[in-house]
Amino acid sequence: MQEMQERSEERFVGLMDHIAVNSEDIKRDLTEYQRMGFRLETLYDDWAMLRDAHGFGVALLAPGSKHPPHFGLRVETREALDSAAMREGRTVHEHRDGSVSFYTKGVSGHAVEVIYYPPEFDPSTSK
């Protein structure tokens, strides 16, 4: 009974996908992350995404970026994303790199991005 009650209060469930951190110099930080084994996935003027060999991402946010520092949880279907957004009272946004997500408040007020990568997502088109 208690387990069922806890499940009904579930906000969203996802896999840890990435963290997003502020960067004073994206090009410099990009080089340093590459020296630690990360590969560049996406690069824009205001942010970059790098991934390690296991697929975990680090997003670098340039000064003035519209993205807040956050951690990203990946959901596996668009339906899961839409359902979570509805429960959170948030609007889903399609991004220029092809991903779809929304931001919400997590534990202790930290920003969380709940993100979905559609089957046609191709980060190589955004370098």
Short characterization:
The chain is α+β, with helices and mostly antiparallel strands and 127 residues long.
Walk me through what this model shows.
22% of the residues lie in helices and 33% in strands. The protein has 127 residues and is of the alpha+beta class. It has one domain: 2,3-Dihydroxybiphenyl 1,2-Dioxygenase, domain 1 (Roll), CATH 3.10.180.10. Strand 6 and strand 7 (100-105) form a beta hairpin. The radius of gyration is 15 Å and the shape is globular.
Comma- or semicolon-separated keywords:
single chain, 127 residues, alpha+beta, 2,3-Dihydroxybiphenyl 1,2-Dioxygenase, domain 1, 8-stranded mixed sheet, 3 helices, 22% helix, globular
Average residue pLDDT: 91
Report the radius of gyration as a whole number of Å: 15 Å
- The portion of residues forming beta strands comes to 25-35%
- CATH homologous superfamily identity: 2,3-Dihydroxybiphenyl 1,2-Dioxygenase, domain 1
Can you tell me the CATH topology? Answer: 2,3-Dihydroxybiphenyl 1,2-Dioxygenase, domain 1
Unreliable stretches (pLDDT < 50, length at least 5) are none
The count of domains is 1
Helix residue percentage: 10-25%
- Morphology: globular
Say how many strands there are: 8
Give the end-to-end Cα distance, rounded to a whole number of Å.
Answer: 50 Å
**CATH-defined architecture:** Roll
The major β-sheet equals: 8 strands, mixed
Output the structural class: alpha+beta
Return the string of H and E elements.
Answer: HEHEEEEHEEE
Instruction: Please report the first level of CATH classification, the CATH class.
Output: Alpha Beta
* Subunit organisation of the chains: single chain
Strand order of the largest sheet: 2-3-4-1-5-8-7-6
Helix tally equals 3
